[in-house]
Predict the 3D structure of the following.
Amino acid sequence: MSHTAHIPSHRKPRQRASKSALRAGVAGGVLSTIAVAGAAGPAQAEPVTQTIEMPTITTGLSTAVAASAQATQQVALDLETRAYEDAAAESAAKKAKKAQAEAVRKAEAKKKAEAKAKAEAAERAERASRTAERTTLSAPAASSSGNSSSASAPSSSSSTATGSAGAIVAFAKAQVGDAYVAGGTGPNAWDCSGLVQAAYRTVGIDLPRVSQSQSTAGTQVSLDNLQPGDILYWGGAGSAYHVAIYVGGGEFVGAQNSSTGTVQRSMDYDRPTGAVRVL
C-alpha cells in the first residue's frame, strides 16, 4: 500500500509542476502580450495624429502661401513689364516726333537751297543771253547808220509822263527795292512780267502774264523814240526773256533778278532789244 500510495504521490507533483509550468507559461504569455500591447499602443497612437493630420494641414497652407507669393510676384513682374513698355513707347514717340521735325527742317532747307540755286542759274542764263543779244545787235547797228547817237538815247521830250503813262511810271517807281521772286505778282515781290502787268492794271489795261506775250502786246517802237510807259523787252519779239517799263530820261524800272531785286537803271546798264507801246 505504501508502495502504491507512493506512486501517486510521486506523479502528482509532476503533474502540478507541469501544470504550474503551463500556467506560468500561459500567464507569462498573456502578461507579455498585455505588456507589448500596452507599450505599443501609446507609442503608435501619438505619431498617427502627428504624421497623418498635421503634415496634411501644413502642406496645404504652404501650397497656398507659395501660390499667393507666386501670384504677387507675377503681378509685380507684369506691372514692371508694362512700365518698361510704356516708357519705351513714350521714348519711341519722342524720337519719331524729333525725327519728323528734323526731316521737315531738312526738306525746307533743301527746298530753299534748290530755289536759290535755280534763281542763280536763271540769273546767269539771263546775263549770258543778254550778252549774246547785245553782241548780235551791235553789228547791224554799227553797219546800218553812221549816226549812232540818235539810236542810243530816246528823245528828251519823253522824260515827263502824264495821264495813264504817268500812273504806270509812278506805280513802277514805287516798287523799286522790292524783292525779285520767280512767278511773283506782288505786292512786295515780283518777277519782270508780273511787275509790268500790275503797273498796267492800275490804268485798267490787262496785259498777258508772261514776257513773251507782253513783247507783242502793242505797237513796236524804236528805242530812239520811246515814251514813258512803253514796255522794253530783251530777246526777240514774241520770244522775249525779260521785260521792264521805260520811265523816261533814258531809264527803266524792272524786277531784274534775285540779287538786285526791283531797280531803276539806265538803259546803258543793260540795253534792251526792242520796245512796244500799249497806250
User: Anything to note?
Assistant: The CA atoms of residues 48 and 54 lie 10 Å apart. Residues 134-158 have pLDDT under 50 and may be disordered. Strands lie at 179-180, 189-190, 219-221, 231-234, 242-248, 251-257, 261-266, 274-277.
